[in-house]
Amino acid sequence: MKETAGIVLAGGMSRRFGGEKSLTKINGKEMVAYSVEAFAGLNDIVIVARPDLAVKILQTRRICVIFDLPQYRGKGPLAGIYSAMTEIDAEWYAVLPCDTPWIKQSVIEKLLAQRAPEWDVIVSRAGGRLQPLISVFHRRAKEKIRAKLDTGNLSMRSLFEDCRVKIIDFEQKKWFANINTKDDLK
Ligand SMILES: Nc1nc2c(ncn2[C@@H]2O[C@H](COP(=O)(O)OP(=O)(O)OP(=O)(O)O)[C@@H](O)[C@H]2O)c(=O)[nH]1
After folding, report:
1. Which one is the CATH code of 2-185: 3.30.70.270, 3.40.640.10, 3.90.550.10, 3.20.20.70?
2. For the chain: N or C, fewer Cβ within 10 A?
3. Residue of the CA atom closest to atom 13 of ligand 1
4. Where along the chain is GTP bound (predicted)?
5. What is the ipTM of this complex?
6. Within 6 Å (CB) of ligand 1, which residues are found?
7. What distance lies between CA 61 and its chain's CA centroid?
């Protein structure tokens, strides 16, 4: 079993953005690459992408790319986290979305520093807003996630109600800004 793996969620439909959000370049680099780089301290990183995008990501990065498990396809971020946990057996999993290009490795390091037996999830909060997809999960959370997926209750907040959650506050809101639309790029 690995100690800690990194999961980049890139399996969304990008409906608001319209087009391939994860592969859109900012300052010459694909958005998904910023998330991969924030995991620089980790040896095992998996991108959970849509099948139609995976080939393109594979062409640009030497990194493990998987798809959501078929039974959970279309079920959102929890499907991606669960699929990655099934692919890589690790004690802890650091999670990032593919659309936070200003995220820093130091954020991940600060979250990982909180790993302890009493927590199932360590989640960031920036400017008072919880950032459920910039977080760290213990493998204990995997079965709780599966239960949510199987009942169709797909909200991260609902999952957190069933977990022992440690919240870590950050002041630098800009690092957590995410790109939803093409206007957000301006
Ligand atoms: N693997 C996986 N990742 C997902 C899924 N849904 C969303 N994500 C990822 O989760 C992060 C946040 O996604 P959202 O912004 O809520 O959704 P989106 O699909 O990117 O965009 P919209 O279609 O405009 O809502 C992004 O990194 C997405 O790629 C999914 O079903 N599977």
Report:
1. 3.90.550.10
2. C
3. 12
4. 9-11, 21, 68, 99
5. 0.98
6. 9-17, 21, 48, 68, 74-77, 79-80, 97-99, 133, 180
7. 17
The full set of domain ranges for the chain reads: 2-185
Q: Is 10 annotated to bind ligand? A: yes
Q: Residue 137 Cα, ligand 1 centroid: separation in angstroms?
A: 18
Q: How far is the CA of 75 from the centre of ligand 1 (A)?
A: 9
Spatial distance between the Cα atoms of 41 and 104, rounded to a whole number of angstroms: 12
**Per-residue confidence of the chain (186 residues) as pLDDT tens digits?**
999 999 999 999 999 999 889 999 999 999 999 999 999 999 999 999 998 877 777 666 668 899 999 999 999 999 999 999 999 999 999 999 999 999 999 999 999 999 999 999 999 999 999 999 999 999 999 999 999 999 999 999 999 999 999 999 999 999 999 999 999 988
Dihedral of CA atoms 118, 100, 63, 140 in degrees, nearest 10, equals 20
